[in-house]
Design brief:
The complex is a heterodimer of chains A (272) and B (493).
Chain A: H1 2-16, H2 26-36, E1 52-58, E2 62-67, H3 72-82, E3 86-93, E4 110-112, E5 115-120, H4 138-157, E6 164-168, E7 173-178, H5 181-184, H6 188-198, H7 219-239, H8 246-256, H9 264-271
Antiparallel strand pairs in A: 1-2, 1-3, 3-4, 5-7, 6-7
Chain B: H1 11-17, H2 52-75, H3 80-93, H4 106-124, H5 128-148, H6 151-161, E1 166-167, H7 170-175, H8 177-188, H9 192-201, E2 204-208, H10 213-217, E3 222-224, E4 227-231, H11 235-261, H12 267-277, H13 298-305, H14 308-320, H15 325-338, H16 342-352, H17 358-372, H18 387-392, H19 405-408, H20 411-420, H21 425-436, H22 440-451, H23 467-485
Antiparallel strand pairs in B: 1-2, 2-4, 3-4
Helix pairs in contact in B: 2-3, 2-4, 2-5, 2-12, 4-12, 5-11, 8-9, 16-17, 20-21, 21-22
Classes of the chains: A alpha+beta (272), B mainly alpha (493).
Biased composition (Basic and acidic residues) (chain B): 473-482
InterPro entries (chain B): DNA_primase_C, DNA_primase_lsu_euk, DNA_primase_lsu_euk/arc
Protein name (chain B): DNA primase large subunit
C-alpha cells in the first residue's frame, strides 16, 4: 500500500494542478491545459456550439452526465459548486445536451474524441511474480515504464502524433491522452487499427504462448525490441525471477512448447 | 505478336521519376465512360429510366447473388468450391463479362449491375443491421470481381477513381528501402536480398494511415509520421477500404432520404418484399423468445444445450466469479436471445459476481447490462453475435474467455477440452483435423452431432452459423424426444 501512496504522491501534480484555485495562475494554467488537454476545444471561436462533454461523479455516487460549458469561467464556477470527486472527459457531440432530448437518438453522435490508451497492471498478471490483481509495487511498475516508452515513441514516430499526455490512472495503471486534431477526428476503424498495430499479444486465457512473430521484424517492432532488450536481464530474470522456482520456470516452458509435446525440457531445467 | 522482354520502365515508375500522378485513358471507346470498366464504385446513380418490373427483377437477381456469396463464404472461404458456387450464381443472375470478352451485351450487363445495386441500397438502408449486412456482401462481391481483373484493368479502374494517392518518389524510397523490405519479407521469399529487389521494382503509394486501416491493423506496411507506404500489390486493400467507406456513407445518406422516396406508392411494397427475402435470422432486434428463462435455469440450460463457446464462458464465470468485457458481451447477448429478461439478467450476473459488493456491481456492471437490452444510451437492443462475428471479430487477449474455442484455443487446450467432454479419440481427431484446416464452424457442427448422437439421424443439422441456432436446435431435439416418449424425461449427457 505504501508504494501505491508513494507513486500517487509523485504523480499527483501532473493532472490535478489545473484545478488549483489560484486566479493569478489561471492564465498559466490555461496555457498549460491548452498544450495538453481536451480544453483546447473551449478556445476555438469558430464552433461555439461544439463543446466537449464532462461527466461528474459526486460524493454519494451521484453521476451527472453530458455537461458542457461555454467558457472556462463557467466551468470553473460549476466545478466549485458541485465539488465532484471524479471528472471524466467525454467526446464533442453533434448536439448540445439541452437539445439532446428533442432530437432523434441516432442524430446524437460523437464528432470528436481524444484517442486514449489505458494500460492496466493486471494485464501483466501472467508474467509478474511480485504482485497480482489490484496490488502494484516498484518491482512490477517497471513493466509500465517500458510500456510507456514503447507506445510513446510509436505514437510519435509511426503515427506522427505530438500532443500526448501520460497520467497515472489513480489505481494500478496509466492513461495516455492523445489530443492532436487528427487523433480527435479518427473514426472507429482507424482507432481499432492503431491498437491492432501496437498489439503483439494474441490469445486468451486458453492460449499459453501468445506472442508469435516472424524472424525478420517490422521496423516498429525492431525499434521496440531495442527499447525492451536492456531490461530483460535486470527486470525479468533478476527482479521478477522467472527462472528461480519450478512453478515459475514451468510457465516459461509453457510459452516455449504449446503443443503439449516435449516435456523433456522440464527435467533438464531442474537439474541445472 | 511476339512477346518481348520489355526494356521500358512501367508508366508508374516513369511518372514517379517525373513527380507526376498517372491518369490512364480508357482504351475501349464503344462504351460510355461510366461503364468503361466492369468494376463500379457506384458513386453516381444510374441515369436511365427503367420499368417497375425491371426495378423488381434486377433487385431480386442481385439479391440471389449476394445470398449465395454469403452462404458460400461461410462454408468455404477461399477454395475452388467457393469460386464455383459464386460463378454459377453470377452467370445465372448477374453476368458481368470483362472488356476482353468483347461480348455484345457488355452495356446491358453493366447497366443491370448498376441499377440493381441502387435498388438494393433503397431496400437495405432502413436499419443499421440491414445496412451492415448489405455493406458486407457488396464489399465481398466487389473484392471478388476486383481480384479477377487483369493488372491492366485494375490500374485503369483505380486511376479513373481519382483517389489522389501520391506516388513515392525514388529518392525517398531509397532512404527507407530497408524498412520497406522488412515489411515484405514474408511475400518476397525468405531472403532479405529478394525483398529489397522486390521493393526496388515495385511502385509504392504514400497515403494517410486512416485510409488503410486493414493494413495498419495487420502491421503489413511501413508507416512513419502518419503516412503509410503501400505497395501496388496491396492495392486491393486500399481500394476495398475506399469502396467500403464510399458505400457506407452513401447508405446513411440514402436512409435519411428514404421517407421521401417511399412516397411513391409503387416502390414501397417492392422494397419491403425484397427486404423480407433474406438477411438471416438475427436473434436480436425481433427476438420472440418472450423472456421466459429465469436466472436459476441458466446453469442447466447452458450445460445441456449451449455451444462450446458459451459453456466455456459459463464455466469460467462460475470459477472466477467474474467475466471480462468481451465475455460479458458475447455471453450476455446469447443469454438475452435465449429468453433471459432484463430483470432475470441482472439477478443472474449479480449472483454470478459474488465477490463484488452491491455498490460496485451497480456502478460498474448494471449499466452495461441495461445497455445491451436497449434501456440506456442509444437505446438499441443489441443482437446476439453470430459465428462469423465471434470468429473474426474482437479476438481474446490475456485473461479473456470469449471467442470461438475452435478458433481461439491452442490445439493442446482444445483437445483436452474435447476429451473432458467425454468424446472418443476418433471423434476428437476428426474435429481437430477440421480445425487445422480452419473449418471452425464445421468443427462446431460436428461437435453438435457427436454430443447429440442419442438422437441418431436428427443430430445432423445445417452448419452452425449462430450460437443461438445451435442452442435452439439442441432444445428442439430434446423437446421432440420428450413429446415422442410421452413422459418428462430430460436426457442427461
Amino acid at each position: 500500500m505504501t508504494d501505491k501512496k508513494q507513486i500517487s504522491e509523485e504523480l499527483k501534480d501532473v493532472d490535478m494542478s489545473i484545478f488549483d484555485d489560484d486566479d493569478d495562475a489561471m492564465e498559466d494554467d490555461i496555457n498549460q491545459v491548452d498544450d495538453h488537454l481536451a480544453n483546447v476545444h473551449l478556445q476555438t471561436p469558430e464552433r461555439p456550439s461544439f463543446q466537449p462533454k464532462f461527466f461528474f461523479t459526486l460524493p454519494s455516487d451521484i453521476y451527472i452526465r453530458y455537461n458542457s460549458f461555454a467558457n472556462i469561467d463557467i466551468m470553473k464556477k460549476e466545478i466549485e459548486r458541485l465539488q465532484p470527486i471524479k471528472i471524466d472527459i467525454g467526446a464533442v457531440y453533434s448536439v448540445k445536451p439541452k437539445d439532446k432530448k428533442t432530437v432523434n437518438e441516432k442524430v446524437f453522435k460523437p464528432l470528436e474524441k481524444e484517442l486514449v490508451f489505458d494500460i492496466d497492471m493486471t494485464d501483466y498478471d501472467e508474467i509478474r511474480t511480485c504482485c497480482s490483481g489490484g496490488d502494484i509495487c516498484h518491482k512490477c511498475w517497471e513493466f509500465m515504464t517500458i510500456a510507456i516508452k514503447v507506445i510513446d515513441v510509436s505514437l510519435r514516430e509511426d503515427f506522427g502524433f505530438k500532443h500526448l499526455l501520460w497520467v497515472y490512472s489513480g489505481r494500478r495503471g496509466v492513461h495516455c491522452w492523445v489530443s492532436d486534431e487528427r487523433a480527435r477526428k479518427l473514426d472507429n476503424e482507424s482507432r481499432k487499427a492503431i491498437v491492432g498495430f501496437l498489439e503483439i499479444i494474441k490469445g486468451g486465457a486458453e492460449m499459453s504462448r501468445k506472442v508469435k512473430l516472424p524472424h525478420i521484424l517490422h521496423p516498429s517492432l525492431t525499434r521496440s525490441l531495442e527499447i525492451v532488450k536492456p531490461y530483460f536481464g535486470s527486470l525479468v530474470l533478476d527482479t521478477q525471477g522467472v527462472l528461480d522456482t519450478p512453478d515459475e520456470w514451468n510457465k516459461v516452458l509453457d510459452f516455449i512448447n504449446d503443443t503439449g509435446k516435449n516435456k523433456n525440457n522440464n527435467n533438464t531445467w531442474y537439474h541445472k | 505478336m511476339l512477346k518481348q522482354k520489355s526494356t521500358r520502365t512501367n508508366r508508374f515508375t516513369a511518372a514517379t521519376n517525373r513527380h507526376q500522378r498517372v491518369y490512364v485513358e480508357n482504351g475501349n471507346t464503344n462504351l460510355p465512360s461510366e461503364y468503361g470498366s466492369r468494376l463500379n464504385f457506384y458513386s453516381k446513380a444510374p441515369p436511365a429510366e427503367i420499368t417497375i418490373e425491371e426495378f423488381e427483377t434486377y433487385a431480386l437477381d442481385r439479391l440471389q447473388v449476394l445470398k449465395t456469396l454469403e452462404t458460400a463464404s461461410l462454408r468455404n472461404k477461399h477454395g475452388p468450391e467457393f469460386k464455383k458456387q459464386v460463378d454459377q450464381a453470377l452467370e445465372k443472375h448477374l453476368p458481368l463479362k470483362s472488356n476482353l470478352s468483347q461480348s455484345p451485351n457488355l452495356l446491358e450487363e453493366r447497366r443491370k449491375d448498376h441499377i440493381s445495386h441502387f435498388v438494393l441500397r433503397l431496400a437495405y438502408c432502413r436499419s443499421e443491421d440491414l445496412r451492415a449486412w448489405f455493406l458486407r456482401q457488396e464489399c465481398a462481391l466487389f473484392k471478388y470481381r476486383f481480384e479477377q481483373e487483369s493488372l491492366e484493368e485494375k490500374k485503369n479502374f483505380v486511376a479513373g477513381l481519382n483517389l489522389s494517392w501520391s506516388i513515392l518518389d525514388q529518392s525517398e524510397k531509397k532512404e527507407i528501402l530497408d524498412k520497406l523490405a522488412a515489411c515484405t519479407v514474408w511475400k518476397a521469399g525468405k531472403t532479405a536480398q529478394a525483398a529489397r529487389e522486390m521493393v526496388h521494382n515495385e511502385t509504392y503509394f504514400k497515403v494517410d494511415f486512416e485510409k488503410v486501416p486493414d493494413l495498419i491493423n495487420r502491421r503489413a506496411v511501413y508507416i512513419a509520421q502518419g503516412k503509410a507506404y503501400v505497395p501496388m500489390s496491396e492495392q486491393v486493400s486500399i481500394v476495398m477500404d475506399e469502396f467500403r467507406a464510399t458505400l457506407s456513407t452513401a447508405l446513411e445518406a440514402t436512409s435519411k432520404a428514404l421517407p421521401r422516396m417511399e412516397e411513391d406508392e409503387r416502390l414501397k411494397p417492392i422494397l419491403l418484399n425484397v427486404e423480407k427475402q433474406y438477411i438471416g435470422k438475427d436473434y436480436g432486434v425481433s427476438t420472440t423468445s418472450g423472456g421466459s428463462v429465469r436466472a436459476s435455469d441458466v446453469d442447466q440450460l447452458v450445460r445441456q444445450h449451449a455451444p462450446l463457446c458459451m459453456s466455456n464462458m459459463h464455466t469460467s464465470l462460475r470459477a472466477d466469479k467474474h467475466l471480462r468485457h468481451g465475455g460479458r458481451m458475447q455471453y450476455g447477448l446469447f443469454l438475452k436471445a435465449i429468453g433471459l429478461s432484463i430483470e432475470e439478467a441482472l439477478i443472474f450476473w449479480r449472483t454470478a459476481f459474488t465477490n463484488h459488493t452491491d455498490d460496485k456491481f451497480q456502478k460498474e456492471y448494471s449499466y452495461n447490462i441495461r445497455h445491451n437490452y436497449g434501456l440506456e444510451g442509444r437505446r438499441v437492443s443489441y443482437a446476439a453475435y453470430n459465428c462469423m462475428k465471434i470468429i473474426s471479430g474482437n479476438p481474446p487477449s490475456t485473461g479473456d474467455h470469449h471467442g470461438c474455442p475452435f478458433r481461439h484455443f491452442s490445439q493442446g487446450n482444445l483437445e483436452s477440452k474435447l476429451y473432458s467432454e467425454r468424446l472418443g479419440a476418433v471423434q476428437v481427431n476428426e474435429i481437430m483435423n477440421l480445425v487445422r484446416d480452419r473449418h471452425y464452424q464445421v468443427a462446431c457442427t460436428r461437435y453438435f452431432e457427436v454430443t447429440h448422437s442419442q438422437y441418431g439421424e436428427k443430430s445432423k443439422i445445417d452448419t452452425v452459423e449462430h450460437p443461438n441456432q445451435y442452442y435452439e436446435a439442441s432444445k428442439r431435439l430434446a423437446k421432440e424426444s420428450q413429446d415422442d416418449s410421452g413422459d418428462a424425461m430430460e436426457v442427461d449427457r
